[in-house]
Each structure stands twice: as structure tokens, then as C-alpha cells.
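Recall that a protein's primary structure is simply its ordered list of amino acids. Everything else, from secondary elements to tertiary packing, is in principle encoded there. The following example makes that idea concrete.
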Amino acid sequence: MRSLSPTLISMLLFLPATASDDTLASRAQQALKRHCVRCHSGQDTDDSGFNVMNVAGLREADDGYLTAGDPEDSLIYTRIVDEEMPPSEIRKRAPVTEQEREAIRKWIESGAPDFPSAAARKHVTLEAIYATALRHLRRSDASTRPYLRFFTLHNLFNRKSVELADLHYYQAALSKALNSLSWERRIKLPQRLDVWSDEASAGPDAGPTILFAIDVRDYGWDRNSGWRELQRLYPYGISAEFDDERLHEYDLAIQNRTETELPVLRADWFVANATRPPLYHKLLDIPDSAVELEARLEVSIAKDFVDPKTERIARAGFARSGVSGQNRLVQRSDALHGFYWKSYDFKPDTGRAKLTRFPLGPANLFPGKRHPYDRFAFEHDGGEVIFSLPNGLQAYMLVDGNDDRIDSGPVEVVYDALATSGTPLIVNGLSCMACHKHGMIEFTDTVRDGNATFGSVEKQVRQLYPPNEAMRKLLSQDRDQFLRALDQCVSPFLRTERSGRASIESLDEPVSKVAIWHRSVYLDLETVLSELDLETSEQLFRLGDKPLKMLGLETLRNGGVISRPEWEAFDRQFGPSLMQQTASALGLTPVRPL
């Protein structure tokens, strides 16, 4: 099947109903990828165990999921129409539009043709990536070179199942992730490099950009050794010392100029892993407790609680939220760089959890001395902190009931219906970005006018819980601050022919989208080849049956898959990841800096 140019792919969504099979397939592919691939991406990923992206396999299987020519006899269509799929919690946050349902219907009606392939795309070698990075370094000032690093998307470009249009989301996700890990005051976009010519491209329309350069000082990482942390956990580090002399020469030249062992990292891995603990906490230098963070941001909740003024402290309580089955309290404070939101969340069996009866907590707000309203103070089990960074984006922190930082929230307190991290666990950073994709989420307080207090206690409640109109004004102000920064950060990559002048709020959140694509989608043979920079299956199968079996890759011969965590996990006994062990069998040398 012929490959599609970026412009053609961008125009496909706007062609009339008489569009070609490729157009219908592309529309359906985007809809299914957006709503279904997180759960249905390969063997044994779900009870049904099918890959919604494998059209040929679905057509051939006699399981009722796809009957070419008959949408009403195809479960992948009828379950969406009957609102059985996606699951209700996911559907609430990311509903399937009428246009998407219609795209799937017309595609099946037309015979369910294969999704567009990039078979004719030129393979980009790792040597081309290194050559471009080296060229950029040679043109840079010598004093700047030690701070320059690179992110590549060439592995995705080489994978036929990845549409060129999808690269825009990877680019935007890289930009958002970088700037969400920065305490600097300005949004700084990663610099596009052109692997196709000797000249660096100047604008977002110069073609598929698959290599980016950054200066780590733009994100403050030179002050907390951030890149060293990334290198230490990077499962794709390899050297061609004994395999490819030219590639090894480029690699050494880049290392010498940047003064680091792994100056080129994969952008998809970075986005999916740097936005979750432990890297998220280390790169952003998030302290061990909310108390420390509040001191850093000049937030004094206890002081403002005693003498509440809406511009300094404002609360809202409500019975339901998108992440908890219990009531929830959110609190806004003014902070050094804008705002500081903190939620108070509860386990189902917590005695003093009902906010209408106990609205004046938390009980441990005044450590070492008596709470002035201890009879009316709730006792919480954890919470989420959302605070503005100097550049206007948001950062996050999860805490337990004692305000100590935790990596993920207990599912009995909060849960992620979108399974952004790969499970229902709410993981700090990544899960929060998915949920708060447009900033703070709107809510309506029910505690101010519905609490069970009287007299001076009720007066205190009404001072802490302002009218909904006043709270909405604060929420809108904080949301606008975030959206301005987000627009500056991702629009240069997402505003393509496909999106036109669509508002930033109408576009999918890129970081969580890429994380799901990266972590939840299983690796088939084609993906493994692109991960290893191989062009043909013969190059991998040349290893022989026994080495493939020892690596657990023999399943790839018969259309099997392996999981991303299995591919990336470091072996406790042997050290390297499965990817590195496979590369080693092919003649490369695993690299994992300490």
C-alpha cells in the first residue's frame, strides 16, 4: 500500500463521504486508536485478547468483533453504539463523538479495508540521527555544547503503524513534558533539527521532525543533575563499539562534545517515564512533604485558616468527584507563582470524613497544639496538590494523611478510570496531567449552604467556603493562566492542517496520549524491529531459534507480542533490559551509566 504524505494525511478528515478506502480507514483508525487501543492492543491485554489495530487479524477471526461489510454484526461498532464500550468512566471523560461512530460504521460498511501503511517510508538509521546531532554540535558555541542534549523520534517514524500525523502528538508531548519539569520562568520549546538535509529547519511546517535539541539550562536541570538521573534509568542505551565503526565514531564525538555518556534519548520513553515517579520527583525537585513545598511556595494554610480571606484561602466541598467515591474538599491558596490547590480525600470507612458535619479540618492542621475547631475537624487519608510553576504550567504532588509525599494514591481513596499509568492507580505527575488536561476542573460547593454547624462555627465555615460565584472566578483565573502557557507550549506542534484553528481545549492531552501509546500498547514484530533499528525480520531471526527462545522472543515469529514493561525492565541478575540484551545478541553493547 502506498505511503501518505503529511499534508494528505492532515486533509483526510475533511474529505467528503465518497472518500477512498484509505480515507475511511484512516478516519476509523484514529477513532479506534483514541478510544480502544489502551485496552485492546495485543495478545492477552484484555479478557478478549485482541488487537484493534490488527485489521487483517480481526477480519480473519471468527469471534464477532469485525464482520466486513456489516457494522451491525461487528462488536467493535455495536458496543460503542450501545455505550457498552469504552467503559463508562472513560466515556465520561473522553466521549466517542457522532463523527467518530460514523467513521467506524462507514469503514466497516466499505469492507473494513486495512489501515493506511507507511510501507514506502524511507528507513531512518541511528547513524543519520547521530550525524545530525553531531552537525548541530559543531555549529554550536563550544561553551554551550556540554549543556546540549537530544531527543529522537526516528524509532516511531520507522514503525509503519505510526501515522505521520501522530508524530505531532509526540512532538507536543515532548515540549509539554520538558516545560512541566522546569522551574524556569519561560516556556522553552525543544529545537527542531532536520535529518533530511544539512540545514536545520526553521519552522513547524518543514516536514516530519524526528530529532530535537535542548539546552538543559533552559529547564534548570544543570542545577540538579537531571540528565544523570535520566541516563541511569534509560533501558535503551547501546553502543556500537564492536559493530559499526562509523556509528561508534559519531557516538564518541557527540559524547566528547556534550561530556555525557548518553546524550541522545528516545522522546517517547522520556515522555512516558519522566512524567512519573521516581524521575518526576527528581527532575522537578519535589520535596518529601507538602509542608516543605508550602514553605517554598510561601503558602501558610494554618495562618490563613485562622483569619480567612477568599483571595488567600478558599474552599469547596462536594459529594462526588471523577477520581473518588467519597466526598472531597478542594482548597485554593495564593502562592509564589500563582496558585496552590490542595485536595483532602478520604477512605470509605473514615469516621470523621463527612464534610457537612466536619468541615473545618484537617485535624492535624496545627501540629503540636490544639485545633481551634477540633470537634468539627475532618480527618483525611490523603490528597493531591496542584501548583503553578513559574512558566504558568502546573506541577503535582500526592500526599498521605500526614502530608508526606507518595508516588501513587491508594485505590480505596482515589483511582484513575482512564488507566493512564497502565493501571487504575493514580500516579503522581502523569495521571494528574491526564485528568487536569485543561487546568483546574470545575466543581460546585455544597458545604457552605449545607453544613451541620451553627453560630461562630458556621460563621467560620462561611468565611472559608465562599459563594460558588467567587470560587468560579478564582478557578477561571487559574485555568486561564495554565491554558495560556499550555497553548504556547504545544500549539506550535498540534496546530496542523488537521486541527486548523481549533481551540487548545478541543485538542487531546498529548503527554497522557503518548504515555498510553508507549506503555499500554504491546510490541509486535514490526515494533521490535523499529526499536532495534532493524529494517527486516531476517536481521532479527538471523540470531537463530535458541537465542530467540532464550530471550523470550520466539513468539514474534507467529504473530505474538511482548509487553512494554517486559521489554524495558532491567534484569536484576544480568543488569541490562530485555531490549539491551537483544541488542547485545545482535552485536551491540548495552550502556547504563551509574
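The first strand starts at residue 148 and ends at 152. Residues 1-18, 199-206 have pLDDT under 50 and may be disordered.
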